[in-house]
Amino acid sequence: MNQRAIRPPAEEVYSAELQALATHDTSERPPGWRLSPQAVRGFVCGDPKLNVPRKFYGDDILVERAIVGLAGNRGLLLTGEPGTAKSMLSELLAAAISGCSTNTIQGSAGTTDDQIKYSWNYALLLAKGPSLEALVPAPLYIGMDQGVIVRFEEITRCPPEIQDTLVSVLSEKLLMVPELRTGDRVLLAKPGFNVIATANTRDRGVHEMSSALKRRFNFETVHPIQDFAMEVELVARECRRLLADSAAPAEPEAGAIETLVAVFQDLRTGRTSDAVPVERPSAVMSTAEAVSVAMAAGLDAFYYGKKKLTADFIGRHISTAVLKDNVDDLGKLKQYFDVVVRERGQKLGGPWAALWKARKYLR
Ligand SMILES: Nc1ncnc2c1ncn2[C@@H]1O[C@H](COP(=O)(O)OP(=O)(O)OP(=O)(O)O)[C@@H](O)[C@H]1O
Ligand SMILES: [Mg+2]
User: Fold this and answer.
1) Comparing C-alpha atoms, which of 154, 150, 152 is closest to residue 201?
2) What is the average pLDDT across 32-49?
3) What local confidence, expressed as pLDDT, does residue 2 receive?
4) Domain shared by 206 and 317, yes or no
5) Which of 260, 287, 291, 293 gets mutated to test ligand 1 (max ligand atoms within 8 A of its CB)?
6) What is the pLDDT of residue 182?
7) Which residues of 176-215 are buried (b: 16+ CB within 10 A; e: fewer)?
8) 212 and 277 within one domain
9) pLDDT class for 325, splitting at 50, 70, 90?
10) What does the pLDDT average to over 194-223?
11) Taking burial as the number of CB atoms within 10 A of a residue's CB, which of 121, 249, 300, 359 is the most buried?
């Protein structure tokens, strides 16, 4: 039986890198941190000296600001379009700073106070009354008690009164448990405790954040990758890794991933690299979606093709990323093919010509 989890947490996947960074880390560490801010940056943005590859592609200054804010004990809120690696960045930071990225609250309309702070083992509560023994800690209690990061995913999906649980905790760094005896009633946060929250700008308006809570967070907006070569490198690497994990290692043909990323960048920005305006679909053309198209194309090529990920297979799957809930997007995608893909196919041939031939799969 295969015992490995489908997706182990970052501290497990990168345990050797975290170990190497800790061993060579000679810089000062903020209280309660496993690594210095320099080593945390090296883990996220890559450290060639220690053979640690880059994991987050984009704005390194944003990463530095995020780390410094956390070192200053302010909460961090990563906001931005879907699929811009907000959750990934929060996971990597928690893994590097606390050695644990799984102390996580998943925000939803149904999130309750109990799921954030603590709840009770009712059998023990009835038998012995309220005591520390009967208390079942939730991520916020665990983070404060053990001095580790709490990740709060999709915080704006929670009703405002639930979000506001964090207001006093973030400023006072203490949590009251009124049910307990006087000596146990106040939990004081240990150094290393902090909160990294994420919120998706497309979900804004589900619930606004109170201004009191906003003031307790440093906001960082994560943007889609703009650099073409960087996005190609990321999509190719992620696609190879995911296909290898699925035991379907189809190899991308030269130029196939470049073609996919070019299509995504054109549709995301609403203009081609030659500055020709194109109609933007309403769907999010995120890097994460590009990775899933490449992955689906690779699986298709592995099982039904000749194990080569060609642009033809990309053409078969591209509509799954663009066509979500707006029927007009199909027309926009077809028009992009008719204007841009056709011309590039004629001029450049190769993967663009293969992609143009796959227009018939757009439906
Ligand atoms: N700048 C980037 N650097 C590295 N990976 C990226 C980047 N942008 C997107 N990705 C890819 O996108 C995947 C999904 O990202 P993630 O789930 O963290 O996005 P998100 O911003 O949390 O999205 P959502 O708002 O939908 O929750 C990552 O695992 C990675 O493969
Ligand atoms: Mg996310």
Assistant:
1) 154
2) 98
3) 58
4) no
5) 287
6) 87
7) ebeebeeeeeebebeebbbbbbbbbeeeeebbebeeebee
8) no
9) confident
10) 87
11) 300
Whether 152 and 255 map to the same domain: the answer is: no
Measured from the Cα of 291, ligand 1's closest atom is: 31
> pLDDT tens-digit profile of 227-261?
999 999 999 999 999 999 999 999 999 999 999 99
Q: Is 138 in the pocket of ligand 1 (CB under 6 A)?
A: no
CB of 236 shorter than 6 A to ligand 1 = no
Query: Residue 326 pLDDT more than 90?
Result: no
Q: Is 200 in the pocket of ligand 1 (CB under 6 A)?
A: yes
| Neighbour count for residue 120 (Cβ, 10 Å) | 15
Ligand 1 close to Cβ of residue 56 (< 6 A): yes
196 and 218 in contact (C-beta within 8 Å)? no
Asked whether 59 lines ligand 1 (CB < 6 A), one says no
Alpha helices in 248-341 (DSSP H): 256-269, 287-304, 311-322, 328-336
Instruction: Give the distance (Å) from ligand 1 centre to CA of residue 92.
Output: 12
Q: What is the CA 65 to chain-centroid distance, rounded?
A: 18
Task: Single out the residue of 363, 358, 360 nearest to residue 260, CA to CA.
Answer: 358
Give a yes or no: residue 123 inside a domain.
yes
Local confidence band at 205 (pLDDT 50, 70, 90 cut-offs) = low
CA distance 344 to 360: 17
CA dist 63 and 100 (Å) reads 19
Which is it for the CA torsion 56, 61, 62, 63, positive or negative? positive
Q: What is the DSSP letter of 133?
A: G
HEC per residue, 15-56: HHHHHHHHHCCCCCCCCCCCCCHHHHHHHHHCEHHHCECCCC
Q: Give the residue from 123, 106, 124 showing the smallest Cα distance to 115.
A: 106
Indicate whether residue 103 lines ligand 1 (CB < 6 A): no
User: What is the pTM assigned to this prediction?
Assistant: 0.94
Average pLDDT over residues 266-288: 93
Among 222, 244, 268, where does a domain finish?
A: 222
Angle between helices 311-322 and 328-336 (to 10 degrees): 150
Q: Which band of pLDDT confidence, cut at 50, 70 and 90, is reported for residue 215?
A: very high
Domain that residue 116 falls in? 10-222
Residue ending a domain, choose from 194, 222, 250: 222
Read off the DSSP letter of residue 58: S
